[in-house]
Amino acid sequence: MITTSHVLLPPYKAHVNPPLFIHIYNMGTYLHNLAQDEEHIFQSRFPAVPVPDDITLPEFVLQNAELYATKVAFVEAVTGKEVTYNDVVRDTRRFSKALRSLGVRRGHVIIVVLPNVAEYAIVALGIMTAGGVFSGANPAAHASEIKKQVEAAEAKLIVTNGSNYEKVKGLGLPVIILDEEHIEGSMNWNKLLEAADKAGTSFFNEDVHQTDLCALPFSSGTTGLSKGVMLTHRNLVANLCSTLFSVKPEMVGQVTTVGLIPFFHIYGITGICCATLRNKGKVVVMGRFELRTFLNALITQEVTFAPIVPPIILQLVKNPVVEEFDLTKLKLLAIMSAAAPLAPELLTAFENKFPGVQVQEAYGLTEHSCITLTLGDPEDGSRIAKKNSVGFILPNLEVKFIDPETGRSLPKNTPGEICVRSQCVMQGYYNNEEETARTIDKKGWLHTGDIGFIDDQDNVFIVDRIKELIKYKGFQVAPAEIEAILLTHPSIEDAAVVPLPDEEAGEIPAASVVMSQGAKESEEDIKNYIASNVAHYKKVRVVHFVDTIPKSPSGKIMRRLIREKMVEKMRAKLHSESNVEK
């Protein structure tokens, strides 16, 4: 008797007729195994786009810059300071020469601790041109956090400004100060560039290749320890080729973008600085968000494109300061929302307040060199992605959705972990082979940790992060869904939902809520509001009123921090109650 345990079957494909002996044991078993083995891999609806070989990121973004020499590339919204394309090209080369004269070699990591300033892109591109690796750090970070990044990256040098010098002066590395002032023990930016001019070509030169590392951004720490993401020139050039494929020739040199997203973040340096330089547009640089300054910049600088995050959209919709401005003067054509889900109600409210402004939702991650999904079809304006989706798969990318438990790829309309494979996928985490192996599998698939699905029209929807899903008595609760409902309440300004440990349920949904001024609702009222809009297992069991929702510079809710604070409050309350009973 022949049984399946005695027969080794080859991995036959669906279109191949099964061999006759299959009928001997079980056609049903064969078809079941076939379905289990089928790979559901989705590709872009758009044609592949070419990626140039052996060109570095600085060379790629500054191609044809001489044709725009006098055009402003960066202007600071507050100071009015301007940097032209001629300045960018000249000072990128000068800074590169200065770095090589200081001994910077291929692969050396340089930490940049700067707010958004007009020269930021020059600093980053100069590092890359010299063969170095740019690693942006949050200027608002504590000195101890910057020290951790410096040590983890094995950095050789630091670039900062006067106001952040105290945070880095004790780290034992050479420091370049961007400001005009001279600080004892540091090198001055302007003097370095002047010295580079006088040095001629007497410094050591080294060829830089597309396969070399050029950036080491540190991935978001909102769901775990921060890790250095190794990106090559090829990674970032490929990403820009994919994301900018829809830019038509007549748009080159015509787009003015607001640069509010932190430039140390991949979204800022790649999605704003490099993308704008490639298309010869202008960036209106903002060092921090202040609503009046932001709105004034949009109007006076005639901004046409604003990459922002949901918390800023919330301000634009709900803050009465907006009414002080004549919105008819806006030249804004589109905003791009990224870093966190945009609640459907918030999207509708924005569209009502800013009619005619297109809302693009984007999806991307540091490990994939930035943007991964896009809004619409450039060849047919009517084929625009559905609202609340993050668009279509970009050219040159493959995407699949897998069952997090089994690893099996899933068909359309079935939520699973998003996995992506392309030339944009990082080389790995710096000095962290274990996390690299956990994130990129042997077939080159980057496991994002995000849950989503693709529908019949190829729109991709993000549901939530795997690590952020709340497990209540075996049911999965998506925080983003509950947050979207909370934001429909007229008295709620902002909200975040996190899991709290519970003996009976495993985890319970808990909400941190920012109430509007003068609101009279109680915590119980908020619980009842959610209960009337969701299934029983999605009810919010705990509500805490807070002044603000902590968010990362890129706009992501810092759920881990919120959860820790809530747990502390619960423990303190239990301790207080136990003391009263004694």
UniProtKB/TrEMBL annotation:
<comment type="similarity">
    <text>Belongs to the ATP-dependent AMP-binding enzyme family.</text>
</comment>
<feature type="domain" description="AMP-binding enzyme C-terminal">
    <location>
        <begin position="481"/>
        <end position="556"/>
    </location>
</feature>
<protein>
    <recommendedName>
        <fullName>4-coumarate--CoA ligase</fullName>
    </recommendedName>
</protein>
<keyword id="KW-0436">Ligase</keyword>
<keyword id="KW-0067">ATP-binding</keyword>
<dbReference type="InterPro" id="IPR042099">
    <property type="entry name" value="ANL_N_sf"/>
</dbReference>
<dbReference type="GO" id="GO:0046949">
    <property type="term" value="P:fatty-acyl-CoA biosynthetic process"/>
</dbReference>
<dbReference type="GO" id="GO:0005524">
    <property type="term" value="F:ATP binding"/>
</dbReference>
<dbReference type="InterPro" id="IPR025110">
    <property type="entry name" value="AMP-bd_C"/>
</dbReference>
<dbReference type="InterPro" id="IPR045851">
    <property type="entry name" value="AMP-bd_C_sf"/>
</dbReference>
<dbReference type="InterPro" id="IPR000873">
    <property type="entry name" value="AMP-dep_synth/lig_dom"/>
</dbReference>
<dbReference type="GO" id="GO:0004467">
    <property type="term" value="F:long-chain fatty acid-CoA ligase activity"/>
</dbReference>
<dbReference type="Pfam" id="PF00501">
    <property type="entry name" value="AMP-binding"/>
</dbReference>
<feature type="domain" description="AMP-dependent synthetase/ligase">
    <location>
        <begin position="64"/>
        <end position="430"/>
    </location>
</feature>
<dbReference type="Pfam" id="PF13193">
    <property type="entry name" value="AMP-binding_C"/>
</dbReference>
<dbReference type="InterPro" id="IPR020845">
    <property type="entry name" value="AMP-binding_CS"/>
</dbReference>
<keyword id="KW-0547">Nucleotide-binding</keyword>
